[in-house]
Design brief:
With 259 residues, this protein is mostly beta strands. It has helices at residues 3-18, 244-258, and strands at residues 41-47, 58-65, 78-82, 86-90, 92-93, 98-104, 110-117, 120-128, 133-136, 146-153, 159-168, 171-182, 188-192, 204-217, 220-232. The strands form 3 sheets. Strands 5-6-2-1-15-14-11-12 form an 8-stranded mixed beta sheet, with helices on one face. Strands 4-3-7-8 form a 4-stranded antiparallel beta sheet, with no helix packed on it. The longest helix is centred in the N-terminal third of the chain and has 16 residues, at 3-18. The chain is globular.
Length: 259
């Protein structure tokens, strides 16, 4: 696996976490609502155009099995077919518990996607890669006041949301998170820092902003995403904080445990 792919898988814990971050809606399923009651597989198509990865049109495809454990087999043969012409095999990476590969795609473009398991087509959908947003994140995160995230966007995406997390600097495994959705037409989102539980003066903070498109068909949830993120109060501490993908995956797991 390329180094970019490995870094991106680490990023995955924020996105999938977010993809499980809200309680069930009465009328529809949001990206953050997906549980094993709805799907056996959750597939993230993640825009890797970030300064850290220094890529342009590279997208990472992560397939996470979220069904019943007894039905999981790491030797399964997973293939994503794009526009009936490009077949991408997704090998299993035990370190991350996901089937992963990467390919070149265009933001704002709709693709026909087919997901096959052991040679059997499980689902096919048309899914747009989100238009890329240019974010202005707070330079300072105010833990007792209001914080504002703004962005510009060529056209509306299906979903927009912001995830804010607070971490214990002595053990980043101890943390708490809030998730806020914005309407597709919105270009601003506000939240209060005191909605997060603090762990003293050395509390570390992470802020993650996402654009997403989502489809759920035949118990396969597919979500394409891009993101921007920032960390606060981490100067001169050297802690390794969760990446955006790590945060997403963590949120998903926490929500499922609570349901």
């Amino acid at each position: 696996m390329k180094t970019t792919v490995l870094k991106a898988i680490l990023l995955c814990v924020v996105i999938v976490l977010v993809l499980g971050g809200c309680k069930k809606d009465d009328t529809r399923i949001f990206p953050t609502d997906v549980t094993r009651d709805d799907a056996d597989w959750e597939i993230l198509i993640f825009d890797m155009n970030t300064p850290a990865c220094a890529t342009t049109m590279v997208y990472q495809i992560d397939a996470w099995f979220i069904g019943h454990t007894a039905d999981f087999n790491s030797n399964d043969d997973l293939v994503m077919t794009i526009n009936d012409t490009l077949n991408i095999t997704l090998p299993y990476i035990p370190t991350f518990g996901a089937f992963v590969n990467e390919t070149a795609l265009e933001p704002g473009t709709v693709y026909k996607l087919k997901f096959s398991l052991n040679g059997v087509e499980k689902t096919n959908v048309s899914l747009r890669m989100p238009y890329r947003a240019t974010y202005v994140l707070p330079q300072v995160l105010y833990h007792t006041g209001e914080n504002n995230v703004t962005w510009t966007l060529e056209q509306n995406n299906q979903y927009q949301y912001v995830v804010a997390s607070a971490y214990n600097s002595y053990d980043t495994g101890i943390n708490n998170t809030i998730i806020r959705y914005a309407k597709p037409s919105a270009r601003e989102l506000r939240f209060r820092g005191d909605e997060l539980v603090r762990y003293g003066q050395s509390t570390l903070y992470g802020l993650f902003a996402y654009q997403a498109q989502f489809q759920l068909k035949n118990r396969i949830a597919l979500c394409s995403l891009n993101f921007s993120h920032a960390y606060y109060n981490n100067e001169q501490k050297g802690e390794v904080l969760p990446t955006p993908l790590e945060t997403a995956r963590k949120i998903m797991r926490l929500i499922r445990l609570q349901q």
